[in-house]
Amino acid sequence: MKLSEELSWRGFTNQTTLPDLEVLDRQKFTLYFGVDPSSDSMQVGNLAAAMMVRHFLAYGHKVFLLVGGATGMIGDPGGKSQERNLQTIEQIEHNKQAIAAQYETIFAGQDFTVVDNYDWLSKLTLLDFLRDTGKHFSMTNLLQRDFIASRIGVGGRGISYTEFSYTLLQGYDYYHLNQNHGVNLQVCGSDQWGNSISGVELIRRKTGNEAHVYSCPLVINKATGKKFGKSEAGTVWLDSTKTSAYQFYQFWLNSDDDGVCDYLRYFTMLTKQEIEKIEIDFNQKPSERHAQKTLAYEVTKLVHGSAKADAIRRVAEILFGSKRYQELTKTDFELLAGELVHAEATVGEDLILLLARTSLASSNSDAKRLIQNGGVYVNQDQAKPGAVLSGNDVIAGYVILRVGKNQQAIVSVKP
To answer: Which pLDDT score, from 0 to 100, does residue 229 have?
Structure first.
């Protein structure tokens, strides 16, 4: 399969300045993809575009991965209704290192180069930038950009010159990479289309060179119609200190039936033949959730490594399968203790108090209501009103409390 066919089949087709997708089969591009260090972790939305870049790499295109140390000091106004709070230099430096480390993980074993736009933007003088770059941008065109027009139109909260200048700086990034590394294609998410076009225009006006942009579409949760990448707890991050590896696995395991096969195309490197086979099996026996299990394992393996993914898959198969919790080992419980809400208790403790203490219930009265409604489980057994923690519940020194399908806490039990 050619790259143009791969991208189309996986759903990675959106806006592009390329005359046709087949040019990607005829010509090897040098491309770049960038992330600003607005946080110390990428999120699931960034991962979709990063996976698209993986396919460009697999087909022999050269890749530069940019971390925006300079643009991170400004803040992208796109998608924001009001001015960002500027970060300190120390925060940005920490975030840069974290993003670069995630690049190394997601693109492990691939041939790529990491660059930081602070290395060149910090050397520009204001007058030179205004003379040599600013003069190539029309205010009329800039004011028509959606992310700027929404801020200065009726009901908008305004925009500072600092954030207004962001698109010029990103355009200069593309110009710099074009001149110094031969970059002639920027790959981005759909929300970065306007900023990316700034680079194409600047390169053409300053040098006459041809440069292009290729964007991937916004991934939509088909069950909710909203942007994909949010859980009940909020944004799903790639950093395990912000979204634990176990929570990360659970997020994918809970994928909606309508969209799960699309997510396999977006977020894994499984082949077309492998995914189509999974899709057939899933459609025949959707209750077995084979597609969700494969998706959860593959993406967790990519982001958190094989050892962690293997351990979480084994534990999840017991917790959410037909096997008894007695098959969990002390090592399994220790893994969960680092992933779930963890509390200590003693045999005979009132279950109502314990539910409130682990935050599975908002209060004692809420815990009582949950138990009366049959929504609380001690390991795999439904809790009865008036229940206390029994020694018979304890497995390898632990008990797992569950409310509903997905809310869990692990309890270390003292004799």
So the answer is: 81
